[in-house]
Amino acid sequence: MPRWNTVAIVGVGLLGGSIGLGLRQRGLAKQVVGIGRRRATLDSARRLGAITTSTTLLDRGVHDADVVVVCTPVDQIADHVKAAAACCPQGCLLTDVGSTKGRIVSQLDGGLPAGTCFIGSHPLAGSEKRGVAAADGDLLAGRVVVLTPIRGTEPKARRAATTFWQSLGARVVEMSPAEHDAALAFTSHLPHAVAVALALAVPAADLALAAGGLRDTTRIAAGDAEIWTQILLDNRENVAATLEQFDASLADLREALATADRRQLKRILTQAKRKRDALGS
Amino acid sequence: MPRWNTVAIVGVGLLGGSIGLGLRQRGLAKQVVGIGRRRATLDSARRLGAITTSTTLLDRGVHDADVVVVCTPVDQIADHVKAAAACCPQGCLLTDVGSTKGRIVSQLDGGLPAGTCFIGSHPLAGSEKRGVAAADGDLLAGRVVVLTPIRGTEPKARRAATTFWQSLGARVVEMSPAEHDAALAFTSHLPHAVAVALALAVPAADLALAAGGLRDTTRIAAGDAEIWTQILLDNRENVAATLEQFDASLADLREALATADRRQLKRILTQAKRKRDALGS
Predict the structure, then answer these.
(1) Which chain A residues have a beta carbon less than 8 Å from that of B142?
(2) Which of A101, A229, B28, B112 is in Cβ range 3.0-4.6 Å of A177 for a Cys bridge?
């Protein structure tokens, strides 16, 4: 028997589509309502089995939902959560998948009807791909989802969100929105900024001589420009701090190169290798 | 019928082993002689089918060779080519797989017996893996091999090396050693330096929150520290120049972030995406 009668997904792209597909493939939701602006996107999501019904009207889409997951770009999430909170049933779990949490969660703190069951989520399952065509029902299997409860978060929101993400195979961890944004600046936003700068630095004429190293290192620079503009701006103070740290690491390496200090250069490369090996493949 | 009677491979690691395996799997060489310092490595290369016989003595190993490929770390290549040139038959093709070419090729220019058939090669098929256990007979299929002829290069060395690499499925391009080193500084050595600095910048405590972006961006930092120390030092002037270019790209991004200039940030991310999309997956 399905665990949820109706799950509504606002924004059926790669992540929203993957959540819907995962729910359906695991028999977890009787109905998955896709809510979006473009009929064509909703139609292909339905053909792919990521959603069972669809609407372009958010208020109608969330009307019978047990769970609403907002998967729109970070600039729109707070507005969409507010709109959903005004129309969804009492007790419905509201959450999102935004890559930044501080501003979104604070905008919603006090901005939702009393008793609204909201908690911020961030599934660490990004990709340079986008769109529902790339959806994968196992995208969250084995991945981490960060929940960012605050003082006012309803305990049942924590429990319900934990159950929801675990049912899709994810591992749930909790931290404050500020801790999340500081950590993700290092593990996601800094790598993105570096990949972008690297892609731009390489002369176009030399791209024919690219091997796996350049491909790997710049892969995320192929991510959607609008989505990443929003993320980097939303977390720009933390990102600036991580860039300072990156500069310091790079300065050590440059110094060793400039002075042809073989021992020091090897020490730096050995430390980096040890850290990268710890990360796994 | 095999194209070569005997191919000798000096240094049977990932690349040397992959060349041997490719020759054997395609029936291109009757004998592949593995030459190395460690018996254990040579024994496992033989078990894996990457070589047919082995020796720890370079002079004995190259004695009957039609082709000698030197696959040792860049600091040792010139010495190994010289040693092989002194013992191999007249007309034998000598080449190497070093990731840097300027110093190696100039050290050998004038330093080899008259009529020696040497040309520098660089197969663009690196990996963060190492060792013969990771060898793959198709490693070079579809990859680029750069040949770096100079004024004194025998025409038959160019032809023989082109045939050799093409027979393993590679696409051969030619450029001067200086052009090679300047281009590879951008497409290989700069990405390595950046991946190392990024791996070191991320706090160890945050690694649990790493997703695909950080994994991709830092993957090559897991490469062998000694091998990469040699490569980066060998090409340090070019690498320093590419770091300047990288700084300039990163400075544009930082400026857009610092001033919260959404249009400019999106323009930068869009340019980077376009360039990365051109590179393919």
Answers:
(1) none
(2) A101
